[in-house]
Amino acid sequence: MPGSIEPLDLCNVQVPYYFRCPISLELMRDPVTVSTGQTYDRTSIESWAATGNTTCPVTRAPLSDFTLIPNHTLRRLIQDWCVANRAFGIERIPTPKQPAEPGMVRSLLNQASTVSNPFSVRHSALVRLKGLARESEKNRNLICSHEAREILMRIVFSDVSSCSSELSQEALAVLVMFQLSEAECTEIGSDSNRVVYLSELLFHSSIEVRVNSASLIETVLAGMRSSDLRAEICNVDEIFAGVTDILKNLSSYPRALRIGVRALFALCLLKQTRHKAVQAGAAETLIDRLTDLDKCDAERALATIELLCRIPSGCSAFASHALTVPLLVKTILRISDRATEYAAGALMALCSESEQSQKDAVSAGVLTQLLLLVQSDCTVRAKRKAQMLLKLLRDSWPEDSIGNSDDFACSEIVPF
């Protein structure tokens, strides 16, 4: 094998061949040994196995199992070599965190779920599970494979009469890291006591608890097919108030902002309860937070705005905010095709109901934006909305805006 590996220079320093992974030929960062005695970088051998290979890449011998044993000695030698050559710009590889072991996961879940155990033991087990779940997707998959979701749900809702249980809150922090099945979402959503409990946690003194509660509510709503159950959840006024308050007052926390937007969107998908979002101040809050969001969250926020604009109270709330129309106009062609489509749809709804919104849109430069939109490679629906909006606003243009526009002459808009 040594003779088959060409010299590798790293920062003009030749890397010893036995420090290099036989698969990637790169310096190993987390060397592990397989059942044949060969050593590989963990990432490389895991990718090899994930593609269906069942043999050792070097010896071609069948792998009796895929247990990966960390080669601590070789890893320390590599680290020492990096330190010895740091003058050449080589950085020391960090000591990798080892993946969770099945036996340890089983033990932690057993400790956390055993009611007779002392509080400190159960709490410590949940904290360790949370740490493992945060480290990697592989750890999360391993934890899930031991019926962790069922165990965690029991702990979260073991005492729904009080929102002061630290065990419940710690279990909730772990549970929201996993995707729940439809049956699990239905189990939570069909229990009114559990729904009320989650709505109470939205006003907890801990920011993490509030955001985790909103995250679980969003997961449950997104994971259920029953519109009746979703309606029952959305009928809880405190949920809209709590989620809106997270968006309004916790905007300096990126995760809170992201979860708040996702939860509000899930709540507003049900038409008959959208007025509750408006009553909770969601319209004003969405506009105030729109510029703080990244691409995906901005798309969801704009989709929510368009949904709320489909009801009269939503239109009125957005129309009364001075920044609504200018921000929607500015959003067109700025974020993504989806964002453009939602912004155009919201503007269409607002301008259909309010002459003032039409004037505000024209003043904000919507003519240029719409003309560019209909000539772009955006979605068919976005173009259709743009054309409808242009037709709606035709009486609001300044007299010389269309006649002197070369863009309009070559656009796809047919004369009205």
What's the short version?
The chain is an all-alpha fold.
Descriptive report:
With about 425 residues, this protein is mainly alpha-helical. Helices cover about 60% and strands about 5% of the residues. A three-stranded antiparallel sheet has the order 4-3-5. The chain has a two-stranded antiparallel ribbon with strand order 1-2. Helix 7 (about 165-175) packs across helix 10 (about 205-225) and helix 8 packs across helix 10 (about 205-225). It is globular, with a radius of gyration of 28 Å. About 40% of the residues are buried. Mean pLDDT is about 90; it is low at about 1-5 and about 400-415.
What is the string of SSEs from the N terminus onward? EEEEHEHHHHHHHHHHHHHHHHHHHHHHH
Overall pLDDT level: 88
Number of strands: 5
Assign the structural class, choosing from mainly alpha, mainly beta, alpha/beta, alpha+beta, or little secondary structure: mainly alpha
Q: What percent of the residues sit in helical stretches (DSSP H or I)?
A: 55-70%
Strand content: under 5%
Radius of gyration: 28 Å
Low-confidence stretches: 1-5, 401-416
Biggest sheet, spatial arrangement of strands: 4-3-5
For the report, how would you describe the main beta sheet? 3 strands, antiparallel
Identify the overall geometry.
globular
**Number of H/I helices:** 24
Distance between the termini: 76 Å
EC number: 2.3.2.27
Catalytic activity: S-ubiquitinyl-[E2 ubiquitin-conjugating enzyme]-L-cysteine + [acceptor protein]-L-lysine = [E2 ubiquitin-conjugating enzyme]-L-cysteine + N(6)-ubiquitinyl-[acceptor protein]-L-lysine
Function: Functions as an E3 ubiquitin ligase.
Pfam families: ARM_PUB (PF25598), U-box (PF04564)
